[in-house]
Write a structure and sequence with these properties.
With about 325 residues, the protein is mostly helical. About 70% of the residues lie in helices and about 0% in strands. The protein has a domain at about 100-315: MetI-like (MetI-like fold, Orthogonal Bundle), CATH 1.10.3720. It has a two-stranded antiparallel sheet with strand order 1-2. The chain starts with a helix and ends with a helix.
Length: about 325
Amino acid sequence: MTTPNALSISQPVATAQPAATAQAKTKRKRHHKGDLSLRRQFLLQLLCIAIAVTVLFPIVWIVSMSLDTTNSRPTGLNLIPANPSLDAYRTVIAQPTQNTVSFLQLALNSLLLAAMISILSVTIGVLAAYSFSRMKFRGREFLMIAILAVLMLPAVATLAPLFVMLNKVVIGGFNLRNSLLGVGLAVLAGQLPFAIWNMKGYLDTIPRELEEAATVDGASRLQTFLRIILPLATPVIAVTAFFGFIAGWTEFYFSWQFLENQQNFTLAMALNGMVGQYSGSTPWSSFAAFSILVALPVSVVYLFLQRYIISGLTLGGVKG
C-alpha cells in the first residue's frame, strides 16, 4: 500500500512535467515570433532603402548636372561628370537672367514676398482659428464650410478675378496688381484657409480648463490668448509659418501674370526664364545650379523647424 508520504512526494513530480512542457512551448513560440519580427524588420528596411534611393537619386542627379561643364542636355544617367566645376554657380550668381536684375535683387524680392505671406497668414489665421475654436456665434458653421470650400479651389482658379480686382486699385502711379504687395495678397487669399483650418484643429486639442483656471485668477481673454494659448500653439504656428514661407518663396503663377516691372521679379520667375523653347536650347547646368540655390534656403529652414513641423502636423489633424 502507498503511504500518505509517498503520495505527497509523487504529486509535485507529476505536475512538474506539464509545467516544463508548457514553458518549452512558450519559449518556442517566443522564438518563432522573434523570427517573424526579424523578417518583418528586414522587409521594412528594404522598403525604407528603396524609398530613400527613389527620393535621393533625383537630388544627386541634379547636383551632378550642376557640376557638368558641357551645359548641354543630359543624354544619360551620369552621376559623376567628367570635369566637375562650379562655373554654373558663378554664372547664375553673377548674371542669372538676360535682363539687368541681379541675383541678390531676385532673392530679396522672393524673401520679402515669402516673409509677408508667412507673417500675415500666421497673424490673421491664428486669430480666426481661435475664434472658430473657442467662440460660438451666428454663422460659425457656414463660415467654416465657406473657408473649406475656398481651400478646395486650386490657386489658378482665382487668377482672373484677382487680376481684375487688384488692377482696379491704382493710387497715383502705384498699381497694386503690378507690385509684390498685390502678389502677396493674392497668394494670401489661398493660404489663409489652410492656416485657419490647420491651427483650428490644433487649438481644439488644448484643454479649455487652462483658460478657465486663468480666468478664475483674474486674467482677461486677451491675456489668456497671449500667455497661454500662443505658447502652447508654438508647433502649429511654426508649421503654418513654414508653409506660408514656402508658398511665397516658390510662388510663380501670380507673379508671372501680375508683375511687369523687372525689379519686382522673383527667383521662381528667373528660373522659369532660363527654360528655352526646345530642350537643346536650355542651359541645363546653369538651370540645375539655379534650382539648387533656390531650394537650399527652404531646406535649411525645414531642418531647423523639423521638430515643430512634425508635431504640429500630427496634432493639427486630430480634431476638425
